[in-house]
Amino acid sequence: MKVTDHIKNARASLFSIEILPPLKGKSIQSIYDSIDPLMEFKPAFVDVTYHREEYVYRKRGGNLLEKISIRKRPGTVGICAAIMNKYKVDAVPHIICGGFSKSETENALIDLNFLGVDNILALRGDSIKTETAFVPEPDGHNYALDLVEQVVDMNKGKFLDEELRDALPTNFCIGVAGYPEKHFEAPNMKSDLKYLLEKVETGSNYIVTQMFFDNSKYFEFVRRCRAIGITIPIIPGLKVITTRTQASVLSKVFHIDIPEMLLDEIEKCKTDKEVAEVGIEWCISQSKELYNSGAPCLHYYTMGNSNHTRRVAAAIF
Known about the structure:
The protein is α/β, with parallel strands linked by helices and about 325 residues long. It has one domain (about 5-315): TIM Barrel, CATH 3.20.20.220. The protein has helices at about 5-10, 30-35, 75-85, 100-115, 145-155, 190-200, 215-225, 245-255, 260-270, 270-290, 305-315, and strands at about 15-20, 45-50, 55-60, 65-70, 90-95, 120-125, 175-180, 205-210, 235-240, 295-300. The strands form 2 sheets. The chain has an 8-stranded parallel beta barrel with strand order 1-2-5-6-7-8-9-10, surrounded by 6 helices. Strands 3-4 form a two-stranded antiparallel ribbon. The protein is globular and about 60 Å long.
């Protein structure tokens, strides 16, 4: 079922989660172990992230360097199939621009369509560690907008091979990312919202936000989106802070603010166990307010650890 249909049919805010694929060499059981404790809350869908290929250079004979492709985590197609088969729940694969040509993207989408996947989250993706800025693959997409356009074309039966005749269209529900505190590359919020509007007008069906810890940022983001004509569902993304280090790392990596009150409480903690308790209570408070305000769905970034998310879900759902 499409994410938008789940939302349309819901009587209250839905529950959904995002998981990380297992590290290379790990089994699918690590995924099941993280999902099992959360199934009692009936997640409407499970997002599966994608981590692009990166490269290392290793010295070989004759002072030559060999470029070797490494992938820290497996792709999402097989994982989505496994999740849908085991739990009978919708899986939402992240489809990114980085590391893919248009042809490779099309092939991945065809495979997902064959599997009966109804939803995708279209993202540009991050630059690799050796790049100072995002660099697309040859014949790849520069922006998430370009990726959305390709999916929309496939939904119309338009594929890269223009000689195809009577091609059956796909029927993907397209999600995109939103940034209540703006994307770090955008010069200001107005320009960031302009690009988001372009993705919506191109054919995106729903928005999932970057994590935030101040609900007022989400409410203001929704207000500004509605003011410029964005009417599709905007799903808030939530995360439990579990360690003192995480508070600074999340701020740095995701370019988000940690509210003073939350940080003050974290700094009072003597152990990470105490920090986790603060983080859980903060997330419960956020979730209750969002739930009561009628947010279409509460989406939790589990980061591979479901125990803390489970305690939040138990208090809300």
